[in-house]
Amino acid sequence: MGWTEKSASEQGRAIERGELDPVELTQSYLDKIAAHPLRDRIYARVTPDRALAEAEAASRRAKLGQRLSPLDGVPISWKDLFDTAGIVTEAGAGLLQGRVPESDALVLQVATAMGLVCLGKTHMSELAFSGLGLNPVKKTPPCVNDPDAVSGGSSSGAAASVAFGLAAAAIGSDTGGSVRIPSAWNDLVGLKTTSGRLSLQGVVPLCKKFDTVGPLCRTVEDAALTLATLEGRKAADLRGVSLQGVRLAALQNVVLDEMEPEIAENYQAVLGQLAEAGVEIVPIEVPEIAGSLADSGVLYTVEAWAEWGEEITAQPDVMFPAIRERFEAGQGASGAEYLQAWQRLEQARAAYAKATRGFDAVITPSSPIFAPKTDKLLAQGEYYVRANLLSLRNTRVGNLMGLSSISLPTSLASCGILLNAGPMQEERLLRLAAGVEQVLRGQKA
């Protein structure tokens, strides 16, 4: 196995030991990207000059024993909605064709100051408003397990860049599942951070009340280190994790509906594995979730239309019709309907917090469906709408309830599980996820 196939954490440790040079590592990625047949479907643009300059600086620091973080010198990709100074940032949209920001997004500034190497910008769903990753306006990245299927969205190229070994990790955004769905369908770890934890300054918005920033990685350790690097701080300590005494609430209503049979069978097998490892699993129901999911149409589309309606009205034909129609759905709701939906959501959040009190996390399947075929989605119609809503249904619970959330891969390809914890509980969630990861990999936790 070459270095480009290893985790970001392993690469960082090898740089620390002097076994791996950041310049050689970065050049390996750049060469691999250039030669990859699917490169143009994954990367919107590669930034070799920036990457090599950052790698050279990391190499000098490593030789002097002055590394800035455990991931100093590790090359990663960035979803094309994070502003990059002097580099086109279009958020997958014809509406933003040729847009060149003057400065980096704040999280990119912090990551660069901590030594991460920017390989380039990855393709994504148009303006981040789809969980599928289908983008006929720009490019549609492939699923690593099925080249004829979408990779999940909206951080579609982000997931593909890691899954195909074209980046050590990737930074995406998650408004309704956009980090966790592509992670689940590409056998990665995807962390949704709590709203407000990471800065959205310089991040092209969709719905600012729900937009979050998060990493897509090979391992939970990678997710912990990447989160810390984005914040400029020390990572959560994952040593000595144990599942003894852990209590998980297994949500029963809504999230188990309409599951594909293999996913349902795999989910029950995962619960069995965890129970054998000493985890107490308690079925619970939170009826208010159904109402919140129904209200999410108003909550998301009204804010999205308020953000982009003027631009869409001026250039409607440059958008993929299925995405444009999602935005346009926000025109019809009244101010009263929007405020009432938020009032109901606050009540649902209180009910959820009460129902899940005393549990370490809530577990659900990441998605009830596998990655759909691209050709079938291109026909649009009812299948596209249904697939998009189903893909995001389970993950959206975490956004609506204001939670921290992580998707972990399982032994079944393109099938993940979700662990949801309270707001600003990422460190505790990462420790729990590390223990679950060990069990799913057949190790002892």
UniProtKB/TrEMBL annotation:
<keyword id="KW-0436">Ligase</keyword>
<dbReference type="GO" id="GO:0016740">
    <property type="term" value="F:transferase activity"/>
</dbReference>
<dbReference type="InterPro" id="IPR023631">
    <property type="entry name" value="Amidase_dom"/>
</dbReference>
<dbReference type="InterPro" id="IPR036928">
    <property type="entry name" value="AS_sf"/>
</dbReference>
<feature type="domain" description="Amidase">
    <location>
        <begin position="24"/>
        <end position="430"/>
    </location>
</feature>
<dbReference type="InterPro" id="IPR000120">
    <property type="entry name" value="Amidase"/>
</dbReference>
<dbReference type="GO" id="GO:0016874">
    <property type="term" value="F:ligase activity"/>
</dbReference>
<dbReference type="InterPro" id="IPR020556">
    <property type="entry name" value="Amidase_CS"/>
</dbReference>
<protein>
    <submittedName>
        <fullName>Glutamyl-tRNA(Gln) amidotransferase subunit A</fullName>
        <ecNumber>6.3.5.-</ecNumber>
    </submittedName>
</protein>
<keyword id="KW-0808">Transferase</keyword>
<dbReference type="Pfam" id="PF01425">
    <property type="entry name" value="Amidase"/>
</dbReference>
